[in-house]
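Researcher: Please generate the 3D structure of the following complex. Treat every line as part of one assembly.
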Amino acid sequence: MHRSRLYGLFIDTPHRDAPAAASFWSQALGVPARPVPGEEQFTALPGAFPNLTVDVQAVDDAPRYHVDIETDDVDAETARLIALGAVEVARWLDCHVLRAPGGHLLCVVPVHSDPEVFAAHARTWP
Amino acid sequence: MHRSRLYGLFIDTPHRDAPAAASFWSQALGVPARPVPGEEQFTALPGAFPNLTVDVQAVDDAPRYHVDIETDDVDAETARLIALGAVEVARWLDCHVLRAPGGHLLCVVPVHSDPEVFAAHARTWP
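Model: Done. Output below.
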Protein backbone atom coordinates (compact mmCIF):
# COMPACT_ATOMS: atom_id res chain seq x y z
CA MET A 1 0.00 0.00 0.00
CA HIS A 2 1.35 3.44 -0.87
CA ARG A 3 0.11 6.99 -1.34
CA SER A 4 0.54 9.75 -3.93
CA ARG A 5 -0.80 13.11 -4.99
CA LEU A 6 -0.37 15.74 -7.66
CA TYR A 7 2.35 17.91 -6.19
CA GLY A 8 3.77 20.41 -8.62
CA LEU A 9 3.45 22.35 -11.83
CA PHE A 10 6.76 23.14 -13.50
CA ILE A 11 7.23 25.82 -16.12
CA ASP A 12 10.21 24.39 -18.01
CA THR A 13 11.93 27.16 -19.92
CA PRO A 14 15.08 27.33 -22.08
CA HIS A 15 17.98 28.63 -19.95
CA ARG A 16 18.33 31.96 -21.69
CA ASP A 17 14.63 32.77 -21.20
CA ALA A 18 14.22 31.41 -17.67
CA PRO A 19 14.86 34.73 -15.85
CA ALA A 20 12.27 36.50 -18.02
CA ALA A 21 9.81 33.66 -17.46
CA ALA A 22 10.35 33.75 -13.69
CA SER A 23 9.80 37.50 -13.65
CA PHE A 24 6.63 37.21 -15.73
CA TRP A 25 5.04 34.41 -13.74
CA SER A 26 5.93 36.04 -10.45
CA GLN A 27 4.11 39.21 -11.44
CA ALA A 28 1.32 37.41 -13.28
CA LEU A 29 0.47 35.36 -10.19
CA GLY A 30 1.39 38.02 -7.63
CA VAL A 31 4.01 36.01 -5.75
CA PRO A 32 7.75 36.25 -5.13
CA ALA A 33 10.30 34.53 -7.39
CA ARG A 34 12.85 32.80 -5.17
CA PRO A 35 15.98 30.85 -6.18
CA VAL A 36 16.05 27.34 -4.74
CA PRO A 37 19.33 26.87 -2.83
CA GLY A 38 21.38 24.00 -4.22
CA GLU A 39 19.06 23.55 -7.19
CA GLU A 40 19.97 26.54 -9.30
CA GLN A 41 17.81 25.51 -12.24
CA PHE A 42 14.65 26.15 -10.20
CA THR A 43 12.96 29.42 -9.31
CA ALA A 44 10.14 28.85 -6.83
CA LEU A 45 6.91 30.83 -7.01
CA PRO A 46 5.73 30.29 -3.42
CA GLY A 47 2.05 30.93 -2.85
CA ALA A 48 1.11 30.69 -6.52
CA PHE A 49 -1.55 28.10 -5.64
CA PRO A 50 -2.45 26.62 -2.23
CA ASN A 51 -0.60 23.33 -1.61
CA LEU A 52 0.72 23.17 -5.19
CA THR A 53 4.41 23.79 -5.86
CA VAL A 54 4.83 26.04 -8.90
CA ASP A 55 8.39 26.57 -10.16
CA VAL A 56 10.10 27.86 -13.27
CA GLN A 57 12.78 25.34 -14.25
CA ALA A 58 15.59 26.22 -16.67
CA VAL A 59 16.00 23.37 -19.18
CA ASP A 60 17.96 22.49 -22.30
CA ASP A 61 14.80 21.92 -24.28
CA ALA A 62 11.83 23.67 -25.80
CA PRO A 63 9.37 25.46 -23.49
CA ARG A 64 6.90 23.09 -21.85
CA TYR A 65 5.02 22.55 -18.64
CA HIS A 66 5.26 19.32 -16.70
CA VAL A 67 3.68 18.01 -13.52
CA ASP A 68 5.12 16.11 -10.57
CA ILE A 69 3.40 13.41 -8.57
CA GLU A 70 4.86 12.95 -5.08
CA THR A 71 4.67 9.64 -3.29
CA ASP A 72 5.84 7.78 -0.23
CA ASP A 73 6.98 4.89 -2.47
CA VAL A 74 8.58 6.02 -5.72
CA ASP A 75 9.10 2.52 -7.08
CA ALA A 76 5.54 1.41 -6.38
CA GLU A 77 4.03 4.59 -7.80
CA THR A 78 6.21 4.42 -10.90
CA ALA A 79 5.17 0.79 -11.43
CA ARG A 80 1.49 1.73 -10.93
CA LEU A 81 1.66 4.48 -13.54
CA ILE A 82 3.55 2.25 -15.99
CA ALA A 83 0.84 -0.38 -15.55
CA LEU A 84 -1.67 2.34 -16.50
CA GLY A 85 0.21 2.91 -19.76
CA ALA A 86 2.96 5.42 -18.99
CA VAL A 87 6.50 4.85 -20.27
CA GLU A 88 9.63 5.72 -18.31
CA VAL A 89 11.82 7.99 -20.41
CA ALA A 90 14.51 9.15 -17.97
CA ARG A 91 15.65 9.07 -14.39
CA TRP A 92 17.26 12.03 -12.63
CA LEU A 93 18.28 11.55 -9.01
CA ASP A 94 15.12 10.40 -7.24
CA CYS A 95 12.90 11.59 -10.07
CA HIS A 96 11.42 9.12 -12.53
CA VAL A 97 10.38 10.89 -15.72
CA LEU A 98 7.39 9.27 -17.43
CA ARG A 99 5.52 9.98 -20.63
CA ALA A 100 1.79 9.47 -20.16
CA PRO A 101 -0.59 8.06 -22.76
CA GLY A 102 -1.30 11.11 -24.93
CA GLY A 103 2.30 12.28 -24.76
CA HIS A 104 2.66 14.42 -21.59
CA LEU A 105 5.67 14.42 -19.29
CA LEU A 106 5.27 13.83 -15.59
CA CYS A 107 7.79 13.08 -12.86
CA VAL A 108 7.37 10.78 -9.89
CA VAL A 109 9.27 12.12 -6.89
CA PRO A 110 9.55 11.36 -3.17
CA VAL A 111 7.32 13.39 -0.86
CA HIS A 112 8.42 17.03 -0.91
CA SER A 113 5.39 18.63 0.76
CA ASP A 114 4.93 19.20 4.45
CA PRO A 115 3.90 15.86 5.96
CA GLU A 116 0.50 17.18 7.02
CA VAL A 117 -0.26 18.43 3.50
CA PHE A 118 0.68 15.06 2.04
CA ALA A 119 -1.31 13.19 4.67
CA ALA A 120 -4.38 15.34 4.07
CA HIS A 121 -4.44 15.17 0.28
CA ALA A 122 -2.68 12.02 -0.93
CA ARG A 123 -4.68 9.10 -2.26
CA THR A 124 -4.02 5.55 -1.11
CA TRP A 125 -3.33 2.77 -3.59
CA PRO A 126 -3.62 -0.95 -2.85
CA MET B 1 -9.38 47.36 -10.06
CA HIS B 2 -9.86 43.71 -10.96
CA ARG B 3 -9.04 40.27 -9.64
CA SER B 4 -7.56 37.04 -11.02
CA ARG B 5 -6.20 33.67 -10.00
CA LEU B 6 -4.65 30.55 -11.46
CA TYR B 7 -7.71 28.46 -12.23
CA GLY B 8 -6.95 25.43 -14.34
CA LEU B 9 -4.45 22.95 -15.68
CA PHE B 10 -5.34 21.57 -19.11
CA ILE B 11 -3.86 18.41 -20.54
CA ASP B 12 -4.16 19.19 -24.25
CA THR B 13 -4.03 15.96 -26.23
CA PRO B 14 -4.38 15.10 -29.94
CA HIS B 15 -7.97 13.97 -30.63
CA ARG B 16 -7.15 10.35 -31.32
CA ASP B 17 -5.25 9.99 -28.03
CA ALA B 18 -7.59 12.03 -25.82
CA PRO B 19 -9.69 9.05 -24.58
CA ALA B 20 -6.54 7.16 -23.55
CA ALA B 21 -5.17 10.27 -21.87
CA ALA B 22 -8.42 10.83 -19.97
CA SER B 23 -8.44 7.22 -18.80
CA PHE B 24 -4.80 7.40 -17.69
CA TRP B 25 -5.08 10.67 -15.78
CA SER B 26 -8.33 9.62 -14.16
CA GLN B 27 -6.70 6.50 -12.77
CA ALA B 28 -3.35 8.16 -12.08
CA LEU B 29 -5.01 10.83 -9.93
CA GLY B 30 -7.80 8.64 -8.57
CA VAL B 31 -10.73 10.70 -9.81
CA PRO B 32 -13.59 10.24 -12.28
CA ALA B 33 -13.32 11.26 -15.94
CA ARG B 34 -16.48 13.15 -16.87
CA PRO B 35 -17.51 14.57 -20.24
CA VAL B 36 -18.33 18.28 -20.10
CA PRO B 37 -21.85 18.79 -21.55
CA GLY B 38 -21.80 21.16 -24.53
CA GLU B 39 -18.01 21.24 -24.64
CA GLU B 40 -17.23 17.84 -26.06
CA GLN B 41 -13.51 18.49 -26.38
CA PHE B 42 -13.14 18.55 -22.59
CA THR B 43 -13.05 15.66 -20.12
CA ALA B 44 -13.13 16.94 -16.55
CA LEU B 45 -11.13 15.26 -13.78
CA PRO B 46 -13.08 16.58 -10.79
CA GLY B 47 -11.25 16.40 -7.49
CA ALA B 48 -7.82 16.02 -9.06
CA PHE B 49 -6.57 18.95 -6.96
CA PRO B 50 -8.49 21.13 -4.49
CA ASN B 51 -9.85 24.29 -6.14
CA LEU B 52 -7.92 23.66 -9.37
CA THR B 53 -9.79 22.60 -12.51
CA VAL B 54 -7.92 19.78 -14.25
CA ASP B 55 -9.25 18.70 -17.66
CA VAL B 56 -8.06 16.70 -20.63
CA GLN B 57 -8.75 18.73 -23.77
CA ALA B 58 -8.76 17.16 -27.25
CA VAL B 59 -6.83 19.44 -29.63
CA ASP B 60 -5.59 19.53 -33.23
CA ASP B 61 -2.02 20.00 -32.09
CA ALA B 62 0.88 18.27 -30.39
CA PRO B 63 0.49 17.19 -26.75
CA ARG B 64 0.99 20.03 -24.31
CA TYR B 65 -0.23 21.34 -21.00
CA HIS B 66 -1.57 24.84 -20.61
CA VAL B 67 -2.91 26.87 -17.71
CA ASP B 68 -5.92 29.16 -17.39
CA ILE B 69 -6.13 32.33 -15.35
CA GLU B 70 -9.69 33.31 -14.44
CA THR B 71 -10.65 36.89 -13.83
CA ASP B 72 -13.58 39.20 -13.20
CA ASP B 73 -12.31 41.48 -16.01
CA VAL B 74 -10.92 39.60 -19.01
CA ASP B 75 -9.89 42.73 -20.91
CA ALA B 76 -8.08 44.28 -17.93
CA GLU B 77 -6.33 41.02 -17.03
CA THR B 78 -5.30 40.41 -20.64
CA ALA B 79 -3.91 43.95 -20.84
CA ARG B 80 -2.06 43.47 -17.54
CA LEU B 81 -0.39 40.28 -18.74
CA ILE B 82 0.50 41.82 -22.11
CA ALA B 83 2.11 44.72 -20.26
CA LEU B 84 4.19 42.11 -18.39
CA GLY B 85 5.46 40.75 -21.70
CA ALA B 86 2.89 38.19 -22.88
CA VAL B 87 1.70 38.19 -26.49
CA GLU B 88 -1.88 37.43 -27.55
CA VAL B 89 -1.85 34.61 -30.08
CA ALA B 90 -5.53 33.68 -30.42
CA ARG B 91 -9.01 34.35 -29.15
CA TRP B 92 -11.64 31.65 -28.75
CA LEU B 93 -15.04 32.72 -27.43
CA ASP B 94 -14.29 34.46 -24.12
CA CYS B 95 -10.81 32.95 -23.92
CA HIS B 96 -7.77 35.04 -24.75
CA VAL B 97 -4.81 32.79 -25.56
CA LEU B 98 -1.47 34.33 -24.61
CA ARG B 99 2.12 33.19 -24.99
CA ALA B 100 4.16 34.12 -21.93
CA PRO B 101 7.80 35.21 -21.96
CA GLY B 102 9.63 31.90 -22.15
CA GLY B 103 7.12 30.46 -24.59
CA HIS B 104 4.28 28.93 -22.54
CA LEU B 105 0.60 29.11 -23.45
CA LEU B 106 -1.95 30.42 -20.99
CA CYS B 107 -5.57 31.44 -21.40
CA VAL B 108 -7.39 34.29 -19.72
CA VAL B 109 -11.02 33.36 -19.10
CA PRO B 110 -13.99 34.79 -17.19
CA VAL B 111 -14.54 33.45 -13.67
CA HIS B 112 -15.53 29.79 -13.86
CA SER B 113 -15.04 28.80 -10.20
CA ASP B 114 -17.63 28.99 -7.50
CA PRO B 115 -17.85 32.64 -6.43
CA GLU B 116 -16.64 31.85 -2.91
CA VAL B 117 -13.56 30.04 -4.22
CA PHE B 118 -12.72 32.95 -6.47
CA ALA B 119 -13.31 35.47 -3.68
CA ALA B 120 -11.12 33.53 -1.27
CA HIS B 121 -8.14 32.98 -3.59
CA ALA B 122 -8.03 35.67 -6.28
CA ARG B 123 -5.49 38.47 -6.08
CA THR B 124 -6.48 42.08 -6.57
CA TRP B 125 -4.76 44.28 -9.16
CA PRO B 126 -4.82 48.08 -9.19
